[in-house]
């Protein structure tokens, strides 16, 4: 009887351990977020206020929109290093086709506001399709293909503005990027809707299931009849469109369109997806993880501004948190592989 009880307890303990191991990637980011909120709330009384929470959401909105597209790509076990460059290009393209003030020395081509927006979105789709073609048809690894696209995007920006700064964008972009409704910034609403739509697509549609299948086991997905090339190409286009949307709204949010304006958003967006717990190896994670990751970065950056700390140390702290997330990501993957081996044995 005692041996049976011990065996049952051991079985329960092993099942609990297996559950915790499988959910490590989801649990660790949430605990990190709670710990950061508690720490900064104690360190600075002005941190835990409704106004500051609104500031955090406002500050992370552009990153969140870019991170949505990256979530699709990383779930397929691919990477897109061109997101920041495409965002920058979209912002500059929409400004290039908008009437600028006389003191802005850019030989641009003015179009109606709706046409400028459509041209910018079309440019993003085109750049995403080029990425997709290079990766799925030519066979270039996504790391190298999107690295090249990063340079192409930077070249487009340089060619259009030639070192100058443009300020005017279509009224709709101004409203969505810097306006508000009922005290809630439109950019936060757009980011929330983008996250919601992406979550619904990944959770409740066949395309979403295929994304997880391709990332989880590409060969099995092919044997199941999934067109892996189409799925990978589609997520790269989605990533480009999300980046373009973020770029246009970001230009209105920052008040100008210029070269290298979104360079820091590449690391921020990747960090948000990875810190949130989406697996770099594909097939695990989702928009819920990305939301937690975006909030972690937002709370961290905002909280560090509320405490008396060396500004150069902030960069180091962010790097250490990203490293910790990568370690957890890899460790969780090893636990998952070990559990699979034990089950099959």
TrEMBL record:
<feature type="transmembrane region" description="Helical">
    <location>
        <begin position="111"/>
        <end position="130"/>
    </location>
</feature>
<keyword id="KW-0812">Transmembrane</keyword>
<feature type="transmembrane region" description="Helical">
    <location>
        <begin position="265"/>
        <end position="281"/>
    </location>
</feature>
<feature type="transmembrane region" description="Helical">
    <location>
        <begin position="30"/>
        <end position="50"/>
    </location>
</feature>
<dbReference type="GO" id="GO:0005886">
    <property type="term" value="C:plasma membrane"/>
</dbReference>
<feature type="transmembrane region" description="Helical">
    <location>
        <begin position="56"/>
        <end position="74"/>
    </location>
</feature>
<keyword id="KW-1133">Transmembrane helix</keyword>
<feature type="transmembrane region" description="Helical">
    <location>
        <begin position="183"/>
        <end position="205"/>
    </location>
</feature>
<feature type="transmembrane region" description="Helical">
    <location>
        <begin position="315"/>
        <end position="332"/>
    </location>
</feature>
<feature type="transmembrane region" description="Helical">
    <location>
        <begin position="142"/>
        <end position="163"/>
    </location>
</feature>
<feature type="transmembrane region" description="Helical">
    <location>
        <begin position="226"/>
        <end position="253"/>
    </location>
</feature>
<feature type="transmembrane region" description="Helical">
    <location>
        <begin position="81"/>
        <end position="99"/>
    </location>
</feature>
<dbReference type="Pfam" id="PF02653">
    <property type="entry name" value="BPD_transp_2"/>
</dbReference>
<protein>
    <submittedName>
        <fullName>ABC transporter permease</fullName>
    </submittedName>
</protein>
<feature type="transmembrane region" description="Helical">
    <location>
        <begin position="286"/>
        <end position="303"/>
    </location>
</feature>
<dbReference type="InterPro" id="IPR001851">
    <property type="entry name" value="ABC_transp_permease"/>
</dbReference>
<keyword id="KW-0997">Cell inner membrane</keyword>
<keyword id="KW-0813">Transport</keyword>
<keyword id="KW-1003">Cell membrane</keyword>
<dbReference type="GO" id="GO:0022857">
    <property type="term" value="F:transmembrane transporter activity"/>
</dbReference>
<keyword id="KW-0472">Membrane</keyword>
């Amino acid at each position: 009887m005692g041996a049976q009880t011990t065996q049952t307890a051991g079985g329960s303990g092993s099942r609990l351990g297996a559950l915790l191991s499988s959910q490590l990637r989801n649990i660790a980011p949430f605990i990190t977020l709670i710990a950061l909120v508690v720490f900064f709330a104690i360190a600075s009384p002005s941190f835990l206020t409704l106004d500051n929470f609104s500031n955090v959401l406002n500050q992370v909105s552009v990153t969140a929109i870019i991170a949505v597209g990256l979530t699709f790509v990383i779930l397929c076990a691919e990477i897109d290093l061109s997101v920041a460059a495409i965002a920058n290009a979209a912002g500059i393209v929409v400004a290039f086709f908008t009437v600028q003030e006389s003191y802005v020395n850019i030989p641009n081509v003015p179009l109606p506001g709706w046409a400028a927006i459509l041209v910018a979105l079309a440019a993003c789709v085109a750049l995403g399709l080029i990425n997709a073609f290079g990766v799925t048809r030519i066979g270039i690894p996504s790391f190298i293909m999107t690295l090249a696209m990063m340079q192409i995007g930077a070249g487009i920006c340089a060619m259009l503005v030639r070192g100058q700064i443009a300020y005017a964008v279509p009224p709709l972009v101004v409203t969505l990027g810097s306006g508000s409704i009922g005290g809630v910034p439109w950019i936060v609403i757009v980011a929330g809707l983008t996250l919601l739509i992406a979550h619904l697509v990944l959770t409740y549609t066949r395309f979403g299931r295929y994304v997880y299948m391709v990332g989880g086991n590409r060969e099995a997905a092919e044997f199941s009849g999934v067109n892996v090339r189409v799925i990978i190409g589609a997520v790269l286009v989605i990533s480009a469109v999300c980046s373009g949307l973020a770029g246009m709204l970001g230009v209105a949010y920052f008040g100008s369109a210029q070269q290298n304006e979104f360079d820091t958003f590449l690391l921020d967006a990747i960090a948000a997806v990875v810190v949130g717990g989406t697996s770099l190896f594909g097939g695990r994670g989702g928009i819920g993880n990305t939301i937690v990751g975006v909030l972690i970065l937002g709370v961290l950056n905002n909280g560090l501004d509320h405490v008396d700390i060396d500004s150069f140390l902030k960069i180091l702290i962010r790097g250490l948190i990203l490293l910790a997330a990568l370690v957890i990501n890899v460790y969780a993957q090893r636990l998952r592989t070990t559990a699979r081996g034990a089950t099959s044995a």
